[in-house]
Amino acid sequence: MITCFIRYEIDPARPEAFHRYAQNWGAVIPRCGADLLGYFAPHEGSATTAYGVYSIASLAAYEAYRARLAADPGGRENFEFARREDRIFLKLASAPLATEPSA
Asked: Which of 2.60.120.200, 3.90.226.10, 3.40.50.300, 3.30.70.100 is the CATH number of 2-90?
């Protein structure tokens, strides 16, 4: 399993535009085959940086997923919105949840 982290540069004067974009992906991404963790909009600190995070089985699965996104009407609409984004694919290097040491 790999996780894709997408960093967006957004217009701080139009936060509602990113929220609509994120809501649209909330339906499209799972429909096209990835496990969406979520989209994260600015709250404190930088008002120009937002993130999207989803997981997929492999880079080969990602390529097929991207083709489905391009064919999806909601996916095509969203591709037109995002102009400034960076992607990185990461693998989990620790356990997903921390546990208390045994007493």
From this structure: 3.30.70.100
Distance CA 75, CA 91 (A): 25
**Alpha-carbon separation of residue 96 from 35, 37, 70, 93 (angstroms):** 15, 13, 31, 9
Q: What is the pLDDT of residue 8?
A: 92
Count of alpha carbons within 13 angstroms of residue 102, beta-carbon side: 0
**Is pLDDT at 95 greater than 80 in this prediction?**
no
What's the pLDDT band for 26 if we cut at 50, 70, 90? very high
Please tell me the distance from the alpha carbon of residue 97 to that of residue 61, in angstroms, as a whole number.
Answer: 26
18: its two tokens: 């990113």
Residue 81: predicted pLDDT? 74
Phi/psi-derived region of residue 33, left when phi > 0, alpha when psi is between -120 and 50, beta in every other case: left
Q: What is the pLDDT of residue 102?
A: 56
